[in-house]
Amino acid sequence: MNTLLTAFTERFLQRPLISEAILDFLLFFSVLTALYFSCRLIIARQHILQRIVHRNHRMHVVSYEKTPVKAATEKHFLILRSVTLKIVK
To answer: Where are its TM segments located (predicted)?
Structure first.
């Protein structure tokens, strides 16, 4: 009985449970899914901003955070790291 169990265990361990092709497919599918949902998030954000602009709301800047600019050629540009907007109807 012990020899049969040992032979079965050795044979089972030699054969992979999931082949590499299936693992490659799962990895590819998960990357595609992540790309799809990130694109949907970007499109949704743009759509919300377009709706705000099309409804002619005024927006007031509540707070902002400047990014330090080191290049001398870019000193006239204000680069913002984060902007908080308040929508006023």
So the answer is: 21-43
